Amino acid sequence: MESIRHTKILVNGINMHVAEIAGDGAAVLFLHGFPELWYTWRHQMLYLSSLGYRTIAPDLRGYGETDAPPSAADYSVLHIVGDLVSLLDALGLDQVFLVGHDWGAYIAWYVCLLRPDRIKALVNMSVVFSPRNPMRKPIESMRAMFGNDYYICRFQQPGEAEEELARVDTALVIKKFLTSRKPGLLRVPKEVGFGGNPNSKITLPSWLSEDDVNYYATSFNRTGFTGGLNYYRAMDLSWELTAPWTGVQIKVPVKFMVGDLDLTYNTPGVKDFIHKGGFNKHVPFLQELVIMEGVAHYINQEKPKEVNQHIYDFIKKF
């Protein structure tokens, strides 16, 4: 880990914290999810840098040591993609390989949709591409399909989820998220709250250490969760702003990976979308699809060696 260099770079009007390992080969840009940081990619950065790649993992807007504008209106996909294009410009990179997970995957789809000229190929994990429905906003659709207790719907009210999470030790919150292996819909009634039982005891799996948990918890203790939650709160705004790209396909080479226990893979309609032609229709350059058995949502941390190899096997072709 001592080989990782940390810098602050001014991008798109904010200061972005960037973790990087130098390399003479092509650059790989990693995008993390919620509630994570650049740190989620530590295994992949070290592995690919050992093969000569230049590996780059920022704390995205709202996370870690990167600036966190207070308004959810500053977290649309146009803002986040703008940050990343500005980052590539600042680093002097015309093109990169892109790797995303969770919200990072969601953003990665939009980077490829809006600026495919900057991406050599994409390896995306957990969150499948979701084509824009021109008839209904995403939060309205989720309320109709999954109810008001669906976690994304519950995240919408500013301050509410933060207040519930604050009732529980931050390290326990991180453990609950990262170790969850329930593949069904995540519904959180208000009487239960996002923090759940503050006295819960969670045994960590072999792939997650107390030091790992403390790295995340220390950061989120300092920043709170609002920055990450604002991505969910800007979903309808992103829908409005991306109207001109309705129906546009993802036109970069893609490898998609997901665990069969991932809650996103088990969301109603997603398996059919992936396996019955919808995914290929919207992502016509999908070259590889990997369903990892017995693996849950945080795939790149749970199975780092396998994920490392999958990424390398794909990007080495370009």
Given the structure, what is the number of helices? 14
Helical/strand content category: alpha/beta
What share of residues is helical? 25-40%
Arithmetic mean of pLDDT: 97
Task: Evaluate the radius of gyration.
Answer: 18 Å
* SSE series: EEEHEHEHEHHHHHHHEHHEHH
Question: Biggest sheet, strands in spatial order?
Answer: 1-2-4-3-5-6-7-8
Structure, described:
By secondary structure, the chain is of the alpha/beta class. The protein has a single domain (5-315), classed as Rossmann fold. Helix content is 38%, strand content 16%. It is built from 14 helices and eight strands. It has helices at 42-50, 77-91, 103-114, 138-146, 151-154, 160-165, 170-179, 210-223, 226-233, 235-241, 270-275, 278-282, 299-302, 304-315; strands at residues 5-11, 14-21, 27-31, 54-58, 96-101, 119-125, 254-259, 286-292. It has an eight-stranded mixed sheet with strand order 1-2-4-3-5-6-7-8, sandwiched between helices. Strand 3, helix 1 (42-50) and strand 4 (54-58) form a beta-alpha-beta unit. Helix 1 (42-50) crosses helix 14, helix 2 (77-91) crosses helix 3 (103-114) and helix 7 packs across helix 8. The longest helix is centred in the N-terminal third of the chain and has 15 residues, at 77-91. It is globular. It starts with a strand and ends with a helix. The mean pLDDT is 97.
